[in-house]
Amino acid sequence: MGHEDNPVGVRAGETFDAGKMETFIRDCLPGLQGDLEVQQFPSGYSNLTYMLKIGDREMVMRRPPFGKKAKTAHDMSREYRILKALHPVFPYVPEPLLYCDDPGVIGSPFYIMQRLKGVILRKNIPRGLNLSAEKAAALCENWVNILVTLHGLDYKTVGLEDFGKPDGYVHRQFEGWTARYREAHTDDAPDFEKVMQWLHDRLPADAPVAGVVHNDYKFDNVVLDPDDPSNIIGVLDWEMATIGDPLMDLGASLAYWVNADDPEEVQLIRTLPTVAPGMFTREQLVAHYLDRTGLALSSFDFYLCFGLFRLAVIAQQIYYRFYHGQTRDERFGMLIAAVQILERAALKIIREGM
Prior knowledge:
The chain is α+β, with helices and mostly antiparallel strands. Helices cover 39% and strands 13% of the residues.
């Protein structure tokens, strides 16, 4: 039984002119045989992802979502640029193939990359996938090790020196995400003011060494080897990558990580199989990261609390589009409950620590 992540039919309202796309691809990649087939990957809440197949050539196209978008989000040229820079030095990056900013093709910028076939974990371990407790633990170690490798890259030597501004990174992140939350606030959403004030009062200094941060590193953005699912063969979705504080990156990742003993309402918003036998806890992941990097840290509370707040902002921005009728995707309507639960989880960190 296969467990690869496979596309389905394109959702209503998210189609594009396949004829114009086929003409663009053939002009740039001559010699392809067969007609263009278009399908869509059904998961994900941000950029839209499609599978383009011509003959036996399978490619993946990414484009921005429809509706209201944050001013600095969904920059296809920026995402394509980081793939081009990292692919030669970080083997988990899919090979970027084409970029297009001509709105005459599909109405928005987009890029095309190679397709990496493999397993992508969602809420639960797929039935029949050989991921024992021992393999789950090995997967968690590999997951951390790859993040450490990414953070350790010399971003200047790979051509990303001007890709971000590491000085003042944490402070800008705080200011940016608080502004985004307030802009996307709806009448049924919590105000998060207590959380934002707590974070403001505890802003740490900049990291001594900045690095490439993925900013969305989680199980459903990594591709696993179907023959050995403890082995990671790819890292996807680089739209929020920048140069910044690696601990902020880890905090963003752990906001998605639900422990088996977390409260029942937190279990309700779990989207990844982090409670399966053998999976590390958040505390074990932090300990392994610090051990691999040699960093000393007295508390991870700020980074985890900020990660939870940031995740709430992302959910609220997506929910805003649904609330105002800018998308018909019914999944988005349920995100208001996640925003409310994430506020309570952040307040728990404030009261009790990690």
